[in-house]
Design goal:
The chain is an alpha+beta fold. The protein has two domains: 106 residues, Quinone Oxidoreductase, Chain A, domain 1 (Alpha-Beta Complex), CATH 3.90.180; 44 residues, no CATH class. It is built from four helices and seven strands, in the order βββαββββααα. Strand 1 and strand 2 form a beta hairpin. Helix 3 crosses helix 4. The longest helix has 15 residues. 32% of the residues are buried. InterPro entries: ADH-like_N, ER, GroES-like_sf. This is Enoyl reductase (ER) domain-containing protein.
């Protein structure tokens, strides 16, 4: 398979080892990938991937399931999904833990769904799960023009 990988002063489209679905994983044929600040910093050599993460950039994707690990039952081959990754999204295929994969919501284009996981998961985990934001509370969002900021405002208003 091919992937976009950092080179000394540019990004290159290169052959890399094939991704395969392991235990608890879903193999996705990537249709679209989001571009995040972390990707830009990694491309500039300022943000190394965390230990154990793929050297291939890309933290969120959308595409079709092409294989599942033997223990995965929530997803089927051919299903359109989006996923949050530790890296590896700028490739033709990516293997992702099933817990980080979501069906693409009805009416959402795959290209738009690729930009959904990072902001949606970040905002939900912080506002709903950690802060337990509830009706009647006020939320101050610094940087409300960013992707995460605009999504936080929408979740808080809902």
């Amino acid at each position: 398979m091919r992937a976009i990988v950092p080179a000394s002063d540019r990004l290159e489209w290169r052959e890399v080892p094939n991704a395969t679905a392991g235990y608890g994983e879903v193999l996705i044929k990537v249709r679209a990938a989001g571009v995040n600040r972390a990707d830009l910093l990694q491309a500039a050599g300022l943000y190394p991937p965390p230990p154990g993460a793929s050297e291939i950039m890309g933290l969120e994707v959308s595409g079709a399931v092409v294989d599942v690990g033997s223990d995965v039952s929530d997803f089927v081959v051919g299903q359109e999904v989006c996923a949050l990754l530790a890296g590896g999204g700028y490739a033709e295929y990516v293997a992702v833990p099933a817990a980080q994969v979501m069906p693409i919501p009805s009416g959402v284009a795959p290209e738009d769904a690729a930009a959904l996981p990072e902001v949606a998961c970040t905002v939900w985990s912080n506002l709903v799960m950690a802060a337990r934001l509830s009706d009647g509370e006020t939320l101050l969002v610094h940087g409300g023009a960013s992707g995460i900021g605009t999504h936080a405002i929408q979740v808080a208003r809902a």
